[in-house]
């Protein structure tokens, strides 16, 4: 069956297919790379962020506990000693404690906000009582100031303050355990997923490379069948023609560039055959003409010989 696809188009088409598969291979590699990187760039950083927030809140809780003790100690020392340094220390710590509580409320979740808000309410009430004790000390009523710091209301607020911190610490310990377990589980899940993605990527890449190899082998076969074999056949046929065998013809299977060359050689061979036939006819014609001329000349020569013979006989008779 004659086909009308040129060699150039087929080779270009084959190489385009290979390029497409190579691009697909790159695309699949990129997508699988994204599947591996996504958990590493999202879930793990999120887990680290969660652990970091818990750690920060734990630090804030420790600072709040420390500042509370420092404020209480400063207020009591000022009430008992009336030394100004304790009041200055108190005034220095109050804004620092407010800042820490504010940061804890801002970073915590809804439950943390509830704990630290209760702590903040208790802290504000305690600060009011402690500042009242400072005013009493400054007014010369140190005993009344001590009574405020020893009152049931003051210690009730201190207990509420401490209870808020304890509630957070209990939650923190549980959250730390859960977070650590969740982190290990996430890492294990991500590791397993990455392993599965790598295996899948190997399979896909193997299939794609196999297809590319098959297409490459097909192109090699096409080049061999459509070009190299036919060139060898043409070389052999032209040698036969050069040696005088004009019966050789090249089979035209594909109407491509090589097919045009094969047709041209066949046409050239046909013309050589026709030329030989024409030459043979001319030779035969000239041979026939020469033979006819030879017959004429031979006949003429015979007639001349006969005429000479007759003349000789006539001359002999006349002499007698």
Largest sheet: none
Number of domains: 2
Number of strands: 0
**What is the straight-line distance between the termini?**
95 Å
Principal-axes shape call: rod-shaped
Helix percent reads over 70%
Protein architecture, described:
The chain has helices at 7-41, 43-81, 84-107, 110-138, 142-149, 152-242, 257-319. By secondary structure, it is mainly alpha-helical. The protein has 2 domains: 1-242, no CATH class; 246-320. α2 runs antiparallel to α3 (84-107), α2 (43-81) packs antiparallel against α5 (142-149) and α4 (110-138) packs antiparallel against α6. The two termini are 95 Å apart. The model has no long low-confidence stretch (mean pLDDT 78).
Topology:
Blueprint: H1 7-41, H2 43-81, H3 84-107, H4 110-138, H5 142-149, H6 152-242, H7 257-319
Helix pairs in contact: 1-6, 2-3, 2-4, 2-5, 2-6, 3-4, 4-5, 4-6, 6-7
Brief characterization of the structure:
With 320 residues, this protein is an all-alpha fold.
